[in-house]
Design brief:
There is one protein chain. This protein has five helices and five strands. It has helices at about 15-25, 30-35, 60-65, 90-105, 145-155; strands at about 5-10, 35-45, 55, 120-125, 130-135. A five-stranded mixed beta sheet has the order 3-2-1-4-5. The radius of gyration is 15 Å and the shape is globular. The two termini are about 25 Å apart.
Length: about 160
Amino acid sequence: MPSSSLRLLGHFFCGSCQQYVMQLAAVRKEALEQAGTRIVIIGCGDWSLIKTTAMYADPARALYDTFGLVESLDRTPAGQEKRSYLAGRSFLGNALKSIWDGPLKNPLHIGKQGKISQLGGDIILGPGEQCSYASRMQHTEDHVELAELMRAAGVSYP
């Protein structure tokens, strides 16, 4: 039976989420097909901001509530190592890139990005009607490591 890996993002202007989605996009299509898995990306902003068919919008955040995803603007706690998708990027650099790529480049999208404090998570549904894996973000830099997610989904990675 096929399974789906749901990636619920924070808001559409989030630089950390954008970095993570770029890593997800690099997963080989053949590896996903071989594992019978598909990646579904969901954001909490307005659907009109989506320029690809590989993403969906949940502006009411119903799925976020269903999966118990929380709100926070906290960063990586002191003493905890940052996730690999943020390697080489400072908090300030990430924030500036988020502002540049989001509201400055797209001023008409301001207010449509989704709730800025909404954290995301990674959920694997299936096979069948079961949730076989769940990781809920605890802070804004807490996307699960992609290797861990792919291993849980049975996808050969890298």
